[in-house]
Amino acid sequence: MSEKEIYIEWAEKMDLPLFFQPWWLDAVCCQGKTWNVILYRQNDTIKAALVFQKMKKYGLTCFLLPELTPYLGCCFAKTIKTSEQQQISLHLLYQLTKQKPAILQLTCWSKEMAFQIQKEAKFNIQERITYKIKDINLAESGMHKIDWVKKNCPLL
Hints:
It is a single chain. It is built from 5 helices and 5 strands; from the N terminus they run ααββββαβαα. It is α+β, with helices and mostly antiparallel strands. The relative contact order is 0.11. The model has no long low-confidence stretch (mean pLDDT 79).
């Protein structure tokens, strides 16, 4: 069985978010584009998955995030601790880079992760920021200061 077929069987047993559902990935990866997955296993049990879209553009192999899911990351089994997630994500990304795509466009969850991938796989990195919050001062209780929100978020 291929990794994709194994993932589809795993997804049927798991309570995955919408954007990780195989039927969603089939819907958004169409017109010559296909989706694929890299799985992370521990003791023959799937613990995480990295889904990506594979396509050819100008004869070059490109790995991208599926359309309409620009921030899709790794999907983790509920047994994976938060402290383990970054290391597993790096492992999955290294596995992806071993396939030698000409273009790899994915979301990195931290600059450190992006630089590690660049160093190991010799990729060029282009930072894209969709938004940046300049300053958040938290009150003693952990709540955001209302004045800061009113001043910096005029739509709220």
